[in-house]
Amino acid sequence: MEWYLNVVRYNYANANGRASRKEYWMFALFNLLFLIAAYIVDYLLGTSPWIYVLYGLAIFVPSITVSIRRLHDIGKSGWWLWIGVIPFIGAIWFLVLVCTDGTPGANSYGPSPKAA
């Protein structure tokens, strides 16, 4: 939960620097859990899909920026995020990129998040 809160609180719209695999995947896990919870609450209250959509809109920017920082960790530009636009193969390639271990030590995007 701490990783999720760090992304949302301190790096809401910050695409500078690097994000470790752990930070990225913990954010993704809690984001998925909150999306499921929002969907369930919407269903129970009969407000479908308002809470789900509002949460999705609120978390859109942090999702993009943590993905960009994750790409920075492996030495790629944030523009590589657009690879996901390519149907099927783009999503698989993006998954490979975010699962790849970051470059050791500092790179052009900053110091290694593992060193911190």
Morphology: globular
Task: Note the quaternary state here.
Answer: single chain
Q: Count of helical segments? A: 4
Range of strand content: under 5%
In short:
This protein is mainly alpha-helical and 116 residues long. Helices cover 59% and strands 0% of the residues.
Describe, in plain words, how this protein is organized in 3D.
The protein has 116 residues and is an all-alpha fold. It has one domain (2-99). 59% of the residues lie in helices and 0% in strands. The chain contains 4 helices and no strands. The longest helix is centred in the N-terminal third of the chain and has 25 residues, at 21-45. The radius of gyration is 15 Å and the shape is globular.
Give descriptors for this structure.
116 residues, 4 helices, mainly alpha, 0% strand, single chain, 59% helix, globular
What's the layout of helices and strands?
Blueprint: H1 2-10, H2 21-45, H3 50-73, H4 89-99
Helix pairs in contact: 1-2, 2-3
